[in-house]
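Shapes recur. Our protein:

. . .
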Amino acid sequence: MSKRVLIAGESWVTHSIHTKGFDSFTTTEYNEGVAWLKAALEGGGWDVTFLPNHLAARDFPQTPEDIARYDVVMLSDIGANTLLLHPDTFVRSKPLPNRLMSIRDYVKNGGGLVMIGGYLTFQGIEAKGKWADSPVEDALPVTIFHHDDRIESPQGVVANVGNPSHPITAGLPAEWPALLGYNKVVAKPDAEVLVRVGGDPLIVAGKYGKGRSAVFTSDCGPHWAPPPFCDWEGYAPLFNNIANWVSAQ
């Protein structure tokens, strides 16, 4: 039976104002950045459930038991507020489970957690990701800064594999395409930094309770992961290795 992974985030709505002299009008466009990651995992035999940001706010599982239907949870470019503020709580003041606590307890009980970088994961742009000091940070193998943690690298930065024998990095090509940015974090003392970029952690793996967690501090799609990275022969093996490792007990 295939393993199940839940990907939350990786979507956005762009609302544009077009001004033409005296007149103006607006357009709205919905976008997703999950295509490369979803295809990679499905190609590796994973049963993928995708919750874009606007659906994750209501539909992300509420309890550790509900989350445990999945072998792995991946949080990618989704802010903590999206999971903290269920519409029934924000609009109707209805008390509901704290889903950040539920994710932490899911990992503690044996689940697998992956956080992928972006403008709203880790601390993100203008520190709006809000994952620092959260229960989810407890389960991650890294400590998150409280300020805007983006390292924008338009010149391109290339990853340096420190441990090529770990199951996450084993079998990957030696040369990696350049990335255009990442979130700066600090590895916890008991975690293992497998890959660095710009001297900072890119891939870190660790254990929490009975479960495992890992981070990939850059993006799984544009803009930080440009087309050469998304089309790289090591892309699918890398993310399958990460998912397989965090799901193994």
User: Anything to note?
Assistant: The longest strand covers residues 11-20.
